[in-house]
Amino acid sequence: MSIIAIVALAIIVMLAGGFYVGRSRAIAAVSGATASLHSLPNYHGYHVAIWTGLPAFLLLAVYGMFGPTLVDRITAAELRRDAIVLTSSFESELASDPEILALEEALTLLRARADAISDSMAELRSASGSDRDPQRLEALAVEQTDLVNQIATTEDARLARRDVLRDRVSAEAAASGAEVRALAGFELVHAPRERRQLFLSDVRRIATDGLASRASDELDAAAAVMAHHDLRIRYLFAGLALALAVGGLVRTRGQIAGPFRARNHVEGLVTAMLFLSSVIAIMTTIGIVFSLLFESIRFFSTVPLTEFLFGLQWSPQIALRADQVGQSGAFGAVPLFAGTAMITLIAMVVAVPIGLLSAIYLSEYAGPRFRLTAKPILEILAGIPTVVYGFFALLTVGPAIRSFFAMIGIDDVVTQSALSAGLVMGVMIIPFISSLSDDVINSVPQSLRDGSYAMGATKSETIGRVIIPAALPGIVGAILLAVSRAVGETMIVVMAAGQGANLTANPLESVTTITVQIVMLLTGDQEFDSPKTLSAFALGLVLFVITLLMNVLALRVVQRYREKYD
Amino acid sequence: MTDASHNPAELPIKVAARDVTVSYSGKQALHNVSIDIPDRSVTAFIGPSGCGKSTFLRCLNRMNDTIEGAKVGGSLTIDGREINDKSIDPVVLRASVGMVFQKPNPFPKSIYDNVAYGPRIHGLALSRPELDEIVENALRKAGLWDEVSDRLAHPGTSLSGGQQQRLVIARAIAVNPEVILMDEPCSALDPIATARIEELIDELRENYCIIIVTHSMQQAARVSQQTAFFHMGNLVEYGPTEDIFTNPRDSRTQDYITGRFG
């Protein structure tokens, strides 16, 4: 068993013991007359237990999070020190190798030419009238592509040569009997990134008796260094944690006395813990938003924001050769926005009337027995996984729509259409609207109903003229929440709406939505830094902003409504 | 029952009840109440909480119909017409028996629309000017016109509590009822607003048969001509207000008005 686990167990035992010590000592401090204690004996127990366990466990958590990284850093630093001699000889090789020098010179030249061409292209583009020369522009573009390709090949050649040199230095050092640790350090500093990571993870596995992907003397040497540091760090943290626990126990035990305000201290600690929990939730949200934001900014550095927001063409699959980035990629998201809007609209057309009317029936007309059965059944609709709705849309509703339109003479209807996705999504949304509206209608004060009935109004007049107007803000809030749910819904549309980014107003055609495209862009093997992948983050950001605005709006509307009747 | 046919004033009888019983889901809340209530006067129902006075009030416009499990028995007539009859549509009945509740309950609409609510659903006005007139008259009668005439489009809920209660009275008056039921109309108001409402009740007496449920003995003494004392679902004593307060015949009435219980 690892030392950390032993210490953790010990802390738990101390924590439990601390509780009883605190409790009994508090009782003893007033010789059994607990009424004269400021705080009940249990509070003294909690106080001791919390100060014994909490700081120590926080420290162990810190170790769990940052311990391995710390060990990696220390190990890498030590190995790097060992490899100083080798590193300097490699650097002198690099500086004196004629091939590398030639390649570097060529690169500088090529880059200068590429800059010149893009300057003159910019000039041509901004020119007007007779100076405008599309043919020349095209020729320049071809030349630019060519140059970009040349730069890439030259750069590849330089890196390849560098690798050859590195391997040679390393081989020579090994032959001349250099220290294994120096070789390991050299590998850790100068190998390409992936190899470095693989090396480090192998070292870690060997050091912790796991299965490594390979074995070599360098790995073993590095693993020995790492195991040493790992053990040291481990004992350091274990000792610190234990010291914190003992210190806390001793300190708080000494504080126990009749007038000691353990109750208030515990209250303060509880408050702090609650605060911490909410901070974690908030920080997570902020973190997600920022990661969306940063990736989106990377995306917008290749595709202009205006093109993304107003472009009418969406086809991230083409024009993605590495050297053509940003020149003709079609990242106009309008068809996606339109598709999202259309499907949401169809869903709302289905869900709002049905949801609202069923809410009115359930809250105003239905007998208690029907209400008790119908409401849970309606809410089951909300619990059905959306993927089930998805294949319901794909296998049942889609074909039904097609055969219906075929029957009335329209033959070119596809199975995957905005209509089928929208209809099924509408069904999915019904319980949101009906359940929320039902609550809102129920919270309209009975006095308003009585007032209306006493005026001689019938039930439907009362509902139409008094209850619905009174509940309207809440109902609007419910609808807005449902809209934001519909906008963010993914599975149904992935399965039922198709993937073609058509800009159309015909609900019988297949369309695609923001969410579907995010799924398409990120599933399968993707380069992580191509605009194609990054565009998913931009879409995610748009989606986030839309749903955020909807939710804020809905909450504000509902809040204003609450103020009026509470 | 004491003196069921007693007519305290020389006014025509508007509402007559004979052996009215009410039970909620089998639990009897009102036992054989018989009473004659004269027109163009104010009749106060007093009694401790849960004595059945509000229950009886709600029989008069059949508001008990809206409560599930409520059962009303006996005979209740307004102007000699049986209102518990199946042939009577409660919706039509309520147009002639207005009601004002404990807490002001203006609808979430403008002041104008609140008052126009009844006339609109009953089709009392054929044109907009006609409706304007009805609204103005009702607001004038409720003594609210001068305060709100310049902001008829404001929401009714923006008024003060006392104003809201007068707005609700105006709303009830707007459909030209014959009887106005008031269920503790001042219990949520401050003394100044209460005085204003009491004044209004006194003015309205000239045209309507007003029945008011109140917990305030002083209020009953101030505004009513007849007082009925209810206790445990029974009508204990009924007579001219002066007699009830100065010379009660039943010891329970005596105890209640002197504050010994309730």
Q: Can you lay out the helices and strands and say which pair or pack?
A:
The complex is a heterodimer of chains A (566) and B (262).
Chain A (H helix, E strand, L loop, with lengths): L2 H27 L11 H42 L1 H13 L1 H29 L7 H42 L4 H11 L2 H15 L9 H39 L6 H41 L2 H6 L3 E2 L14 E2 L2 H32 L2 H16 L2 H22 L10 H25 L3 H9 L4 H30 L2 H6 L17 H9 L8 H35 L1
Helix pairs in contact in A: 1-2, 1-8, 2-6, 2-8, 2-9, 3-5, 3-6, 4-5, 5-6, 6-7, 6-8, 7-8, 9-19, 11-14, 11-16, 12-14, 13-14, 14-16, 15-16, 16-19, 18-19
Chain B lengths: L12 E12 L2 E12 L3 E5 L6 H8 L9 E9 L2 E2 L7 H7 E4 L10 H11 L6 H14 L3 H4 L12 H13 L5 E5 L7 H14 L4 E5 L3 H7 L2 E6 L2 E7 H6 L4 H7 L5
Parallel strand pairs in B: 3-8, 3-9, 6-7, 7-8
Antiparallel strand pairs in B: 1-2, 1-4, 4-5, 9-10
Helix pairs in contact in B: 3-4, 3-6, 4-6, 6-7
Radius of gyration of chain A from the CA trace?
Answer: 34 Å
* Average pLDDT taken over every residue of chain A: 85
CATH superfamily of the domain at 13-107 and 171-257 in chain B: P-loop containing nucleotide triphosphate hydrolases
Output the CATH class name of the domain at 13-107 and 171-257 in chain B. Answer: Alpha Beta
Biggest beta sheet attributes of chain B: 6 strands, mixed
Note the total helix count of chain A. Answer: 19
CATH superfamily of the domain at 337-527 in chain A: MetI-like
Which topology of the domain at 337-527 in chain A does CATH recognise? MetI-like fold
